[in-house]
Automatic annotation (TrEMBL):
Name of the protein in question: C4-dicarboxylate transporter/malic acid transport protein
Keywords assigned: Cell membrane, Membrane, Transmembrane, Transmembrane helix, Transport
InterPro entries documented for this protein: SLAC1/Mae1/Ssu1/TehA, Sulfite_efflux_TDT, Voltage-dep_anion_channel_sf
One Pfam family, short name: SLAC1
Residue stretches of biased makeup (Basic and acidic residues): 11-25, 33-62
Membrane topology: Multi-pass membrane protein
Domain of life: Eukaryota
Keyword Transmembrane recorded: yes
Organism: Meira miltonrushii
Gene Ontology CC entries for this record: plasma membrane
Principal location listed in the UniProt entry: membrane
Region: Disordered, residue numbers: 1-68
Subcellular location as annotated: Cell membrane
């Protein structure tokens, strides 16, 4: 063994290594693998012992670990509330669209409606819970409101609130209103007006903040920019669904407002697609942390296609049922011809928009595969961006299959719907685990303030101007 080998005397200076010692020791060690393994195991045990001792010392020196359990729970709840961002409402978007897809699936089976309604109920509970936490956040820390609004990224997630709420309104019209009668249909109509108001404020207000209060650069443009403008497209499509359960007079007003909402959102989305296309060409695909945002351009295409088709379909059904025209002074026969013309024109428009969405879907999947080939993808809350854009593209596909009586569209819509529901289930489980660990509760706008709410937030204008003398 190594320690019993006697070496010749060395007359060199103290502390200087004897020539050949390193070579002879290495040669001897290599001839005794059992001793080498024993030494490695001993070193490993020593390292583990030191690590455990360091962990014990760090816990002993950490005052928060010495606090009572109730105090630690309160501190953790405070941290969660303080770091609860609007992006959490993307959970409602993904959960809500999953319940809608299962309800509208072309190939139904017994019990599928019950599953859809259970997910719908879960979505309502989550939405109310998220609203309660958000109200607590901005009530306890009032400066967090302007801090969030003036952040160039976090403020854009306000669109997820309106779209998450719209999925609840849709299921109220599709499932609850037929079961609970006309009075609940009016209640659903009121909810839709609230969602429409929020959507139009977000669609116009957020670009205003981008133009005046946010620092922007082309390389920082992501798919998140689509969230505010898509909210009105979603509200428009929701109006087409709600109109089918309303009395004719209410339905006509709803359809007119829905067309206006569609017009405020979809053209802006087309402009943003050009900007985003330019950003991708110049600065290439987004980093792994936000690569899922590449799916967001699919949202305005899917919902734009479904919305224009659903609104015209609802108009056709309402005119046929009531005989009342959308335009004042028209006879019943003229009203029906007018509705048929709008419906016929909407089908090729919906197909064109659907085709544009297909392009963005293929591009986004290609980005994801190409990046996954060379880089690790770490889960974060942004992964909910997989669900809603794909889900609304599924609704457009299913609706086209219904209107065109196309088996190909129905089958494709069913396959994509099942893929979306599977993605929703996987992401929901990952989110639940991340929420329990607390890792998903992180506010970028708060981190930029040092981790604590600021005492005052100045509405700093980012454009040049001359101060008024008065």
């Amino acid at each position: 063994m190594l320690e019993y080998i006697k070496a010749p005397e060395w007359s060199g200076r103290e502390g200087q290594e004897r020539p050949g010692d390193e070579v002879s020791t290495r040669q001897h060690a290599s001839s005794h693998p059992s001793e080498r393994i024993a030494i490695d195991v001993s070193c490993k045990l020593d390292k583990e012992g030191h690590k455990k001792k360091a962990d014990r010392d760090s816990k002993k020196n950490n005052p928060s670990d010495q606090l009572p359990r109730s105090v630690r729970v309160v501190k953790e709840l405070r941290r969660i509330t303080l770091h609860f961002t609007p992006s959490w409402f993307s959970v409602n978007m993904g959960t809500g669209i999953s319940s809608i897809l299962l309800h509208q699936l072309p190939f139904q089976f017994r019990g599928l409606g019950i599953i859809s309604n259970v997910i719908f109920g879960l979505n309502v509970l989550l939405f109310l819970f998220f609203c309660a936490i958000s109200i607590a956040r901005y009530t306890v820390w009032p400066t967090m409101g302007p801090t969030m609004l003036f952040h160039p990224t976090q403020s854009l997630f306000l669109g997820t609130f309106a779209m998450g709420f719209a999925t609840i309104v849709n299921m109220c019209a599709l499932s609850a209103s037929p079961a609970w009668g006309p009075q609940f249909a009016i209640f659903t109509w009121v909810l839709w007006w609230i969602d429409a108001a929020f959507s139009i404020v977000i669609c116009i207000g957020l670009p205003f903040l981008q133009f005046t209060r946010h620092e922007q650069s082309l390389d920082k443009v992501t798919g998140v920019w689509f969230l505010p403008v898509v909210s009105t497209i979603v509200a428009a499509a929701s109006g087409g669904i709600v109109a089918e359960v309303l009395p004719p007079a209410h339905a006509r007003l709803t359809l007119v407002v829905s067309w206006i909402l569609w017009g405020t959102g979809f053209p802006l989305a087309i402009l943003l697609m050009a900007l985003y296309f330019h950003r991708l060409a110049v600065f290439k695909i987004p980093p792994a942390s936000v690569i899922v945002s590449a799916f967001l351009p699919l949202g305005p295409c899917g919902q734009g296609s479904f919305g224009i088709l659903q609104i015209s379909y609802a108009l056709k059904g309402i005119v046929r049922k009531s005989g009342q025209a959308l335009v004042a002074g028209e006879s019943g026969e003229d009203a029906m011809q007018f509705a048929d013309a709008i419906y016929a024109a909407s089908i090729p428009v919906a197909l064109v928009i659907w085709g544009l969405g297909l392009v963005w879907l293929v591009i986004a999947v290609s980005f994801l595969v190409d990046l996954f080939w060379v880089s690790k993808l770490t889960f974060n809350l942004g992964w909910w961006g997989f669900t809603f854009p794909l889900g609304v593209f599924c609704t457009a596909t299913v609706q086209l299959g219904k209107e065109l009586n196309s088996g190909a569209f129905r089958i494709l819509g069913t396959i994509l719907s099942l893929v979306e529901v599977a993605l929703w289930l996987f992401i929901a489980i990952k989110t639940f685990i991340g929420a329990l660990s607390g890792k998903l509760f992180f506010s970028p706008c708060l981190a930029e303030q040092g981790g604590e709410p600021p005492e005052f937030v100045a509405p700093a204008r980012k454009y040049q101007y001359e101060c008024r003398d008065d």
